[in-house]
């Protein structure tokens, strides 16, 4: 196991892509096997030293960023693909394998793993910890849907293999054994989750599957060391197109129709991705992608072709675009793999450009990761947009509109406008909750969204969620500060 203590060598572990930073940690450990992690956790428990878990550091909520006196455990050496089962469409990987690495290998077998956060350098462990998702979540849902099994080192150092459909809660009580035969019992609170795509706090449901408690728990309940993932066959063909609209209402009308038609077995409209770009995003992107220049709003539409006739699907899509007043003469269609890569780059660039901007200004990212019920999305987007305009805060709006999930990133100029943006951000989170939604649909709460998480649940509900952590982690050493603010630790 490599151990780093020197301030220069630990620098890379003290921040993540949100630009949230720590000045110091006690040491960074880079274990090579599960026994080393268990041993480390047992020692940390004995000495009550908090432990932060580090994946690839692409997170956007400061989740992996250590507190001052923490040990950091980095999973970077857990980077092996253990097996690929082409017959049963499954693979087992170590937690530090990156999405890139996995995609490249699976491609050779004609397979793919549906969850696709835009940032491919993320680790599989990090995506499970945050229940990440991406453009394809419209068709395939978030990471949760694709996890068959995980191997976890619990905060006690015990190892536990959790397979989907093997252990379910009896009403609101979960009971499970670890490898050392210790029995754990967790009382789940009866809390209503929002009925939208969600990555805020623990997933809790009556009679729920044990595995779903760990997925999205942001490293507060255990260290994921391995995972078995479900896979899908690569389609025969793919339609990928950026479609422009003059105004937002027409665009959202197109989204609603596509959504409705995707549930209609007789329709050829079956998108896997419905991604949104507003005029501000297109302006930012136009320096790299001239086609976006002077366009107002756009949808990136993607659809898989298995056995359908691609020309009939294209005709249906064109008719739908024309019917919804889209710019039928200027659709940017991907004609070959180079175009496909370029359109993916177009989507990736917008988040990367925003992250570069905040890093240059040395600010923390102020961008919504909110989702709301469909009937409110239009009103929600317009409200956020108007508030930014009337407060002279520059912004770019984009996101997974198929799931009514908005990334409205504010681009404050300086510390003063940063404060205004923070006030607006709170306002946008409050409204998302009021509209039946969530403050985080995919990035998680981490350390920078805890105050907003408290808008979603009462203090008592959050305390009862925190009791789950206390049951598994009585010394409260693991990923301290994620999801729950300090007041819960001191009660
Ligand atoms: C340009 C850009 C675009 C992005 N686009 C998307 C997107 O479309 N969708 C999306 O969902 N996210 C997106 N993200 C956010 C990020 O990629 C995801 O949150 C990703 O899941 C983080 O993975 P990571 O390995 O980098 O985790 P880290 O940042 O290292 O950690 C994230 C959290 O997971 C915990 N963790 C990491 N590994 C483990 C483990 N093995 N066991 C337990 N806990 C662990 C950490 O402690 C931390 O709390 C984007 C980020 C960037 C920079």
Summarize the topology.
Layout: E1 2-4, H1 7-10, E2 27-30, H2 34-46, E3 51-54, E4 71-74, E5 81-85, E6 90-94, H3 99-108, E7 111-112, H4 124-130, H5 137-140, E8 147-153, E9 159-163, E10 173-177, E11 183-187, H6 210-214, E12 223-230, E13 232-233, E14 237-245, H7 248-262, E15 273-277, H8 279-285, E16 297-305, H9 310-323, E17 332-333, H10 337-360, E18 366-367, E19 370-371, H11 374-390, E20 395-400, E21 405-410, H12 415-434, H13 450-453, H14 459-472, H15 486-490
Parallel strand pairs: 2-4, 3-4
Antiparallel strand pairs: 1-2, 5-6, 6-12, 7-13, 8-9, 8-12, 10-11, 14-16, 14-17, 15-16, 15-20, 18-21, 19-21, 20-21
Bound molecules: flavin-adenine dinucleotide.
Flavin-adenine dinucleotide binds at residues 16-17, 53-60, 63-64, 75, 95, 117-119, 122-123, 125-127, 129-130, 132-134, 218-219, 223-224, 351-352, 355, 442-443, 446, 479, 482.
Describe the overall structure.
By secondary structure, the chain is of the alpha+beta class. It is globular and about 65 Å long. Helix content is 33%, strand content 20%. The model has no long low-confidence stretch (mean pLDDT 95). The chain has four domains: 2-74, Uridine Diphospho-n-acetylenolpyruvylglucosamine Reductase, domain 2 (2-Layer Sandwich); 81-232, Uridine Diphospho-n-acetylenolpyruvylglucosamine Reductase, domain 3 (2-Layer Sandwich); 234-358, Alpha-Beta Plaits; 361-445, Alpha-Beta Plaits (2-Layer Sandwich), CATH 3.30.70.2740. The strands form five sheets. Strands 14, 15, 16, 17, 18, 19, 20 and 21 form an eight-stranded antiparallel sheet that branches. It has 15 helices and 21 strands. Bound molecules: flavin-adenine dinucleotide (FAD). Flavin-adenine dinucleotide binds at residues 16-17, 53-60, 63-64, 75, 95, 117-119, 122-123, 125-127, 129-130, 132-134, 218-219, 223-224, 351-352, 355, 442-443, 446, 479, 482.
